[in-house]
Write a structure and sequence with these properties.
CATH class of the largest domain: Alpha Beta
Radius of gyration: 21 Å
Structural class: alpha+beta
Helix content: 40-55%
Largest sheet: 6 strands, mixed
Number of helices: 14
Number of strands: 11
CATH topology of the largest domain: Aminoglycoside 3'-phosphotransferase, Chain: A, domain 2
CATH superfamily of the largest domain: Aminoglycoside phosphotransferase (APH), C-terminal lobe
Shape: globular
Strand order of the largest sheet: 1-5-6-4-3-2
Distance between the termini: 52 Å
Length: 369
């Protein structure tokens, strides 16, 4: 199956659902080999999906109507294009996030140890911001829910699959080919932008969730930004490819097989980044509490099964640094708290509080001091 370049083919990028015309959808499907000669797309209906889930992008399910019977034409596809939320759009542009997913789907997804959605078409504007991706609709698979959280048994499966992914890229010379796109965790942009985003989000945290913060880690608001360069420099080795957003809302199950989506935050650095992010954000506090080391060991054991030697003491130290760093997800997105729908607000609040409780439970703030 070919992946259509939407710009080169003259189809263009989407700016809203009004741009999703029958002619546009037909061009994508025919160009990717998913529509027979003699069959056309006569109509489309759209449904916005993932609200309160996809923070940096808009997702639309597109249901085509065909002129006749088709064996190739999909019943539906999903299109993805930039968010219309100014706070989140600024974050995505400042951190150059959108192009990463396009490159991953085109060049890396076919060899990944987990399933992901097929890509029919994609393109990004020359300024590396406006983009569109057309993907297989995998909505029939069993989704996981960030708000509900994931249980320990499935978390162990997902941490093992994460270790398989990291093992593929562990110290790989191929990473150099993606250095310009998959930025290292320790890079000038992150060091400059993240403290600024933190400063913009923390007042909103204090306003809307200040009464919920654990007292033992409340001081993180005043010290986190200055520690960004130190934290990131300590999360760079051993180097592998990191998903960057490995959390419940980006994972599904096809039977017993994990299916992973959303590669806008893909980057390079220590695999403990993904581990700390997943454990601190996607498992509810009452389920995770008391199991951090057990879960980390599940991941490390799987890495060792690939013949990788691990310094477990250093891995745990990086875990503590990572869970402190990953509080940023809850804080930097909190600037747009009032613009989110009810689920979006609950998601932002849960991401924040789970991460802070994880820091508190493991006394991780001491590693920053």
């Amino acid at each position: 199956m070919a992946i259509v370049d939407l710009i080169e083919s003259g189809l263009g990028l989407l700016k809203s659902d009004a741009d999703i015309t029958p002619q546009w959808v037909e061009g994508v499907l025919r160009g990717s080999g998913n529509l027979e000669d003699g069959v056309s797309v006569t109509g489309v209906s759209t449904e916005r999906i993932g609200e309160g889930v996809g923070i940096l992008s808009i997702l639309q399910r597109v249901i085509p109507t065909y002129s006749g019977a088709t064996q190739k034409g999909p019943k539906s596809v999903v299109v993805k294009y930039p968010t219309d939320d100014p706070t989140q759009r600024f974050t995505a542009d400042a951190l150059v996030l959108y192009i990463r997913e396009l490159v991953f789907y085109k060049e890396c997804a076919p060899d990944a140890p987990f399933k992901t959605a097929k890509c029919y078409g994609q393109a990004i504007a020359s300024d590396n911001t406006d983009f569109t991706i057309v993907m297989e609709d995998i909505g029939h698979m069993r989704p996981l829910n960030q708000l509900d959280g994931i249980g320990l048994d499935e978390s162990k499966v997902l941490l093992e699959k994460l270790a398989d992914f990291h093992a593929m890229w562990w110290g790989s010379p191929k990473l150099a080919n993606y250095a310009a796109t998959f930025q290292p965790l320790d890079n000038p942009t992150y060091n400059a932008v993240l403290p600024m985003l933190w400063a913009g989000g923390w007042p909103s945290v204090e306003e809307h969730a200040g009464h919920l913060l654990p007292d033992s880690v409340r001081e993180i608001g005043g010290i986190w930004a200055e520690k960004v360069p130190w934290m990131l420099s300590n999360l760079m080795t051993p180097t592998t490819m990191c998903h960057g957003d490995y959390r419940a809302d980006n994972i599904m199950f096809d039977g017993k097989d994990p299916v992973v989506i959303d590669f806008q935050l893909i980057g390079t650095g220590s695999g403990m980044y993904d581990v700390g992010y997943y454990i601190s954000q996607s498992i509810s506090t009452d389920v995770r509490r008391g199991h951090d080391r057990e879960l980390v060991d599940i991941y490390l054991n799987r890495l060792e099964s690939h013949g990788i030697e691990i310094n477990r003491e250093e891995a745990w130290r990086q875990y503590l640094i990572c869970i402190c760093f990953c509080v940023t997800y809850g804080v930097t997105t909190f600037g747009g708290f009032t613009e989110q729908n009810e689920r979006g607000q609950k998601l932002l609040q849960d991401m924040l509080l789970r991460s802070l409780h994880c820091v508190a439970d493991n006394n991780a703030l001491e590693v920053l001091k």
